[in-house]
């Protein structure tokens, strides 16, 4: 019996790496789409998941996605590729739209053409986002909550989310979306606030920095561990019927809570003297509070988070301490 095959876009990112590792451990033959032959993150993928087969491709190029599908012949496709830094999306709204919105359509269309007369033979996962809720209309947010995005990134994710539903309903594709709330890890990009905090606190602890500059300390998010969340992605594609699921812890914390916990890990209680707020880091349209209701995922998928916020933050700070120390050697 042949091994199941999976194709992952966005494999160079935090989620792509965790998902690839998880699928390989489950016995999958894993393939990844990577943009550009000289992609600086190619070496990271090859180091962390050397068993992955990489294909050059781009979410804005239909022909490259068709080639990747032809060469990998996957049973499952995980579309994680996106321009995912919210602040960047205001500076580059058109590019964000091309990749994060229209890229979903391009991937779905490539998959439809590849599948031919059997549209459900390849199962598809779309990485939707809690940023779609934006100006939240109810708390907590669930699958039925009205979407009201407040950034070009959020708007693009709404487009991709509804396009996935449309292809499912129009063509009979096994296409599911995971509305993932914030999920972090030591592999999170340094531009994201959680990693910005963990790295700065590690540097302050080691005497390499003396200040952490942030925007809105009162913004609240529902933070979980990325390793838990990729398991939910896989579970969605194991269901007989495709559907959409909120994936969240159901607990919100403020950025102030995040900072306090990070400094506590290195024994610093008087953390405010190291932190400065700067209006430049505030969003043009702020998303104040996000917290998800993952009751459906618990009921249908049997999924629940295993790593708490109180475990996640020290994990990230400690990883950055070790990384900075390794840089001295």
Keywords, separated by commas or semicolons:
329 residues, two-stranded parallel sheet, alpha/beta, 15% strand
End-to-end span in angstroms? 47 Å
Report the major sheet: 7 strands, parallel
Strand order of the largest sheet: 3-2-1-4-5-6-11
Radius of gyration: 20 Å
Helix content: 40-55%
Q: What's the overall geometry?
A: globular
Strand content: 15-25%
Total helical segments: 11
The counted number of beta strands is: 13
Indicate the structural class: alpha/beta
Task: Please write out the topology.
Layout: E1 5-9, H1 14-25, E2 29-34, H2 42-48, E3 53-56, H3 62-72, E4 76-79, H4 86-91, H5 93-115, E5 123-129, H6 152-171, E6 175-180, E7 183-184, H7 193-205, E8 212-214, E9 220-221, E10 224-225, H8 226-236, E11 244-247, E12 253-254, H9 255-265, E13 275-277, H10 295-301, H11 309-328
Parallel strand pairs: 1-2, 1-4, 2-3, 4-5, 5-6, 6-11, 7-10, 8-13
Antiparallel strand pairs: 9-12
Quick summary:
The protein has 329 residues and is α/β, with parallel strands linked by helices. It is built from eleven helices and 13 strands.
